[in-house]
Design goal:
The chain is mostly helical and 230 residues long. Helices cover 80% and strands 0% of the residues.
């Protein structure tokens, strides 16, 4: 079956690409370069592995673009189900999170500037520069906490579209809604009770596999809106 005749598989492949890009900056780089509570060691690691950090920045830029194409693929797939909900998917799941990606990239480039020791920063001593870099990294973390609200909100219209589509299993729509709730709760926990954020993250893991389930379904089986009218 050709991809042009299976828009669901196209969306699934965009989703897969996003999943492959995301963990580099979100998970791998922090685990390898960041040292909790030690600004000097963190900055030293970033300076010593500058290209790894740059690849993480590039992956975020690529991820922002992929996110737009993914939500446009979902719009094409679901516009016949409910065009208003499909537009919400593009706005909350594509445009707004992509903008936060670019803000995060600016923060990371600032960290890299400090780590490389730009001339105009020579007025600050080394501990001050390290503290500045750590502040920018913390701001990046706060941007992720804020983005989690959007990561959750866009799954509500997407879940409703999947549930109502009749060419995808309804349980995926319910799972996506639960996934959305988990992200929103995680985001607000990070703002109101940050000491509980990790605990909430651990307990919400089953719900957060909703997106992965949809992605694998679309990649493997695809979906065709024409099935609705057959």
């Amino acid at each position: 079956m050709r991809l042009t005749r299976n828009p669901g598989r196209i969306a699934g492949l965009w989703y897969l690409l996003l999943v492959l890009l995301g963990p580099l900056r979100l998970i791998y780089i922090p685990s390898k370069l960041f040292v909790a509570g030690n600004a000097a060691a963190t900055v030293s690691n970033i300076a010593a592995h500058e290209w790894l950090f740059r690849f993480g920045i590039a992956s975020d830029l690529a991820g922002a673009v992929v996110l737009i194409f993914l939500t446009l693929a979902f719009y094409r797939l679901f516009k016949g189900v409910d065009q208003s909900l499909a537009v919400q998917v593009v706005i909350f799941g594509g445009v707004m999170p992509a903008l936060l990606y670019f803000v995060g990239v600016a923060s990371d480039l600032g960290v890299l500037l400090v780590a490389r020791g730009a001339d105009f920063l020579s007025v600050f001593d080394k501990p001050q520069r390290d503290a500045l870099a750590m502040l920018l990294l913390q701001l990046r973390g706060f941007q992720i906490t804020a983005a989690e609200t959007l990561w959750g909100v866009w799954l509500f219209p997407l879940g409703a579209l999947v549930y109502r589509s009749r060419f995808l299993p309804r349980f995926l729509g319910v799972w996506l809604a639960l996934n959305g709730i988990a992200y929103v709760v995680l985001s607000f926990t990070g703002v109101l009770w940050p000491e509980w954020q990790h605990t909430v993250f651990v307990y919400s893991q089953p719900a957060m596999f909703g997106e992965m389930a949809l992605m694998f379904w679309l990649v493997i089986k695809g979906a065709r809106p024409a099935a609705v009218i057959q």
